[in-house]
Structure formats: C-alpha cells, structure tokens
Amino acid sequence: MVKPLNLGGLMVPVPIIQGGMGVGISLSGLASAVANEGGVGVISAAGLGMIYKNLGGDFLSNSVEGLRIEIRKARQMSKGIIGVNIMVALSNYDDLVRTSIEEGVDLIISGAGLPLDMPKYLVPGCKTKIVPIVSSARAAALICNKWLTNYNYLPDAVVVEGPMAGGHLGFKPEQIFDENYRLEKLVPEVIAAVREVSGATGKYIPVIAAGGIYDGSDIAEFMRLGADGVQMGTRFVTTNECDASDEFKQAYINSRKEDIVIIKSPVGMPGRAIKSPFLVEVEAGRRQPKTCPVNCVRTCDIATAPYCIMAALTSALRGNFNRGYAFAGGNVWRTNKIVSVKQLMNTLKEEYYFAMKTLAIPA
Length: 363
Hints:
four-stranded antiparallel β-sheet; TIM Barrel; alpha/beta
C-alpha cells in the first residue's frame, strides 16, 4: 500500500494505525494481530485498573501494572510495531507514559487533551516515538511550536481526528455536523500547519487521517489529500482478535444508522456511541453516581457526572448494555460480520488498489 509509513525512522510496512479503544477493547490480542499484518497495533491504557483489579493495588497502580502486562503479552505474540494510546485527561497519565517508555513501546499516541509537554518523558537512548492527536490545524501548530521551543523536538507524526470518530471528540457539539470541520477539510489544513513549523528544521512530520475512515476507498481519498497514513478503530472491533466480548462486537453489527448518538461524557467532551438501555436511563435522568470509585479522569466532576464512565465502559466490554454503552465511529452501522484481522487488512488493501486505479493515481 503506497510507501511505508515513516515514523521518525520507524518504518511501518502498511500505513494503517489501529485506533486505541478503551476500556479493554484494544489490548494485546488485537494490537499484536494488527502488528503481525504490518500495521501499528495499539493498546489502550484507559481503564486497565478495572480489568486488572485483582493485582493487589488501587485502581491507578493496577492500571500501570496492567499496562505493563499487556505490553509484554503483545511483545510475546508479535515482532511487529506496538503502540500505546494514553489519554492526556487520565489521572495517572505521567505514570502510564513512563511505564510505556520503560517497556520500550514503539510509539505513544496521546489525545483527549493537548500533550504539550510529552517530550519531557523521553530519556537518553529511548527509541519510543511520540504522536499527538489533534482536531485542528491550530492545535497541531501549537503543539509543534511548544515542543520545538521547550524541548527542541517535533512530533514523529500527528494524528488529525475528525468529528466522525468514535469515543471522545475534540469538537464543540455544534461543530460535529458542520461541513467546515469535515476530515477532508482538516487534513490539508493540518498538513500545511505542520509543514510551516517543521520546514526550517528539515524534519518531515507525517500526518495521519482518522475518524470515520471505513474502507480502502476512504484510505485512497485521504492519501490523495496528502495524508501519509490512516488510523482506524471501528473496523477492528468486528474482528476475531478484538479483545471485547462477542456481545460487544454484536452490538456493532446490530447497530442501525439511527442508533448512533452524540452524548455528553462525564469527561467533559462530547462522544459518539451506540444507543443502549443505559443511555436511555441517563437521558431520562435516572443515573447518578454516589461516589467516585476510581478517580480515573482529571476532568470528571462527581458532583455533576451522571455516571461513572469507567464502570459504564467496563460493563459494555462484558456485553452488559443495561449498565453501559459502546463508543463507536460514525460508520459503525455499516459493519455486518466478524472477520479475522488478516482478512480485514487484505480487504482494505484490495479496496485501496481498486480505488487508486479508478482515480488513476499511481500506487
């Protein structure tokens, strides 16, 4: 597929990054399978303390040790490229980043907030690449300038995530369906912004398109717009190797277009999810946590939060949609069967080549 994705000297044979999906949706099983097919497999660090709650510590320390376990398991199952997605808003962000670097992950992808000081975690001899997620050219330029001024470092890539993504969105509610914020418009703007900052340094910063990318023709379109690769999350949920329960995967397959809703997350950001009995209760005002059980996210205020997001997402992971819900991208309703990661990657390649031939663009 086109040329390999070059992340600061780290060569990715297939320029597809599997999106990091918490809680527990993308762990070592999915990440290693994607890495084995030449893409970037990504472990989500969000909520691991709920999954590894029997390690003997509290939620935050168990999250760190759980991440260490998942990274090592992925390394045992794959010689490919393994990354970790760590939300800036997580309370133990610092510890999760340091642990990922200690374990030698190939890259850290960070969003849900601006990772303005991410380079400070890099240590001498460290080979881990660092990649911020942005939702605008302004944010991309701000991060690049801050990193360059304060650390003499530029991102090894930038992921620009549009409003069709699943999970937490970096947009105001009124922007989500505004044509001016479509990914097709954002990608060229972010490319121009990072080129302006990086031009004098000689470092090339790849731009990765993300959010609503569903098939190989979408990949071809964003490559045509200048993207160096894509990040995809939703498509990888309906694979055999995805770490979620069969019930969670079936919720994707059973979803209809009208089931996809924008919610107000306790994290303080809008999010895209599949409607569930739990969300119906939230909307009716019948959910309210009494206490915060885990203190997982800095921006969550228990006094105003309608529910504990970590508890809800953990319930969904296990297939209990009376107590939780599934985040999903805007095209989730198009999923119709569960396949292997190998089958999915091969299908994307075939669709991509066909689209490139149709567009008469050299592959």
